[in-house]
Protein backbone atom coordinates (compact mmCIF):
# COMPACT_ATOMS: atom_id res chain seq x y z
CA UNK A 1 0.00 0.00 0.00
CA UNK A 2 2.89 2.36 0.77
CA UNK A 3 4.34 1.85 -2.72
CA UNK A 4 1.05 3.06 -4.20
CA UNK A 5 1.27 6.25 -2.13
CA UNK A 6 4.92 6.67 -3.14
CA UNK A 7 3.90 6.35 -6.78
CA UNK A 8 1.28 9.08 -6.48
CA UNK A 9 3.62 11.30 -4.52
CA UNK A 10 6.23 10.87 -7.28
CA UNK A 11 3.61 11.67 -9.90
CA UNK A 12 2.62 14.80 -7.99
CA UNK A 13 6.22 15.99 -7.67
CA UNK A 14 6.90 15.23 -11.34
CA UNK A 15 3.80 17.13 -12.39
CA UNK A 16 4.84 20.12 -10.26
CA UNK A 17 8.34 20.16 -11.73
CA UNK A 18 6.93 19.87 -15.25
CA UNK A 19 4.46 22.67 -14.59
CA UNK A 20 7.19 24.97 -13.29
CA UNK A 21 9.36 24.19 -16.31
CA UNK A 22 6.50 24.86 -18.70
CA UNK A 23 5.70 28.14 -16.99
CA UNK A 24 9.31 29.28 -17.18
CA UNK A 25 9.35 28.90 -20.95
CA UNK A 26 5.90 30.34 -21.51
CA UNK A 27 5.69 33.74 -23.26
CA UNK A 28 4.36 35.61 -20.22
CA UNK A 29 5.69 38.43 -18.07
CA UNK A 30 7.83 37.40 -15.09
CA UNK A 31 5.37 38.64 -12.48
CA UNK A 32 2.57 36.56 -14.00
CA UNK A 33 4.80 33.49 -14.17
CA UNK A 34 5.83 33.95 -10.52
CA UNK A 35 2.20 34.31 -9.49
CA UNK A 36 1.28 31.09 -11.32
CA UNK A 37 4.27 29.23 -9.90
CA UNK A 38 3.28 30.36 -6.40
CA UNK A 39 -0.34 29.24 -6.91
CA UNK A 40 0.72 25.88 -8.29
CA UNK A 41 3.24 25.39 -5.50
CA UNK A 42 0.51 26.01 -2.93
CA UNK A 43 -1.73 23.48 -4.70
CA UNK A 44 1.10 20.93 -4.84
CA UNK A 45 1.76 21.49 -1.13
CA UNK A 46 -1.92 20.98 -0.35
CA UNK A 47 -2.02 17.74 -2.35
CA UNK A 48 1.21 16.53 -0.74
CA UNK A 49 -0.33 17.22 2.67
CA UNK A 50 -3.39 15.19 1.73
CA UNK A 51 -1.18 12.33 0.53
CA UNK A 52 0.81 12.45 3.79
CA UNK A 53 -2.41 12.43 5.79
CA UNK A 54 -3.58 9.38 3.87
CA UNK A 55 -0.28 7.58 4.48
CA UNK A 56 -0.45 8.39 8.20
CA UNK A 57 -4.00 7.06 8.39
CA UNK A 58 -3.02 3.85 6.60
CA UNK A 59 -0.05 3.37 8.92
CA UNK A 60 -2.27 3.96 11.92
CA UNK A 61 -4.69 1.30 10.66
CA UNK A 62 -1.84 -1.18 10.24
CA UNK A 63 -0.55 -0.48 13.75
CA UNK A 64 -4.04 -0.84 15.22
CA UNK A 65 -4.62 -4.14 13.41
CA UNK A 66 -1.22 -5.51 14.45
CA UNK A 67 -1.85 -4.52 18.06
CA UNK A 68 -5.22 -6.31 18.03
CA UNK A 69 -3.67 -9.45 16.57
CA UNK A 70 -0.88 -9.40 19.15
CA UNK A 71 -3.43 -9.04 21.95
CA UNK A 72 -5.33 -12.07 20.61
CA UNK A 73 -2.14 -14.14 20.49
CA UNK A 74 -1.24 -13.09 24.04
CA UNK A 75 -4.73 -13.95 25.25
CA UNK A 76 -4.58 -17.40 23.66
CA UNK A 77 -1.14 -17.94 25.16
CA UNK A 78 -2.41 -17.01 28.63
CA UNK A 79 -5.34 -19.40 28.21
CA UNK A 80 -2.98 -22.22 27.19
CA UNK A 81 -0.72 -21.56 30.19
CA UNK A 82 -3.72 -21.50 32.53
CA UNK A 83 -4.96 -24.79 31.10
CA UNK A 84 -1.54 -26.42 31.52
CA UNK A 85 -1.28 -25.21 35.10
CA UNK A 86 -4.72 -26.61 35.89
CA UNK A 87 -3.82 -29.99 34.37
CA UNK A 88 -0.52 -30.06 36.24
CA UNK A 89 -2.31 -29.20 39.47
CA UNK A 90 -4.87 -31.95 38.91
CA UNK A 91 -2.12 -34.44 38.10
CA UNK A 92 -0.15 -33.47 41.19
CA UNK A 93 -3.21 -33.87 43.40
CA UNK A 94 -3.88 -37.30 41.92
CA UNK A 95 -0.24 -38.27 42.42
CA UNK A 96 0.37 -38.62 38.71
CA UNK A 97 3.20 -37.11 36.75
CA UNK A 98 2.38 -35.86 33.24
CA UNK A 99 4.35 -37.47 30.47
CA UNK A 100 3.66 -34.84 27.87
CA UNK A 101 1.80 -37.28 25.64
CA UNK A 102 -1.61 -35.83 26.49
CA UNK A 103 -0.61 -32.26 25.68
CA UNK A 104 -2.53 -30.86 22.73
Write a brief caption for the model.
The protein is mostly helical and 104 residues long. The chain has one domain.
Question: What is the general shape?
Answer: rod-shaped
How many domains? The number is 1
The percent of residues in helical segments reads over 70%
- In angstroms, what separates the terminal alpha carbons? 38 Å
Supply the helix-strand structural class: mainly alpha
**Overall radius of gyration:** 30 Å
Tally the beta strands.
0
Low-confidence stretches: none
Work out the strand percent.
under 5%
Q: Count the DSSP helices.
A: 2
The SSE order reads HH
Largest sheet: none
Mean pLDDT: 82
Please tell me about this protein's structure.
By secondary structure, the protein is mainly α. The protein has one domain (2-94). Helix content is 85%, strand content 0%. It has helices at residues 2-24, 30-94. Helix 1 runs antiparallel to helix 2 (30-94). The two termini are 38 Å apart. The mean pLDDT is 82.
Amino acid sequence: MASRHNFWLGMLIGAAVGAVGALMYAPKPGSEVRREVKARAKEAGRKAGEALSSVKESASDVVRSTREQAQQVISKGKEAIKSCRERLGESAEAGQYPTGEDVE
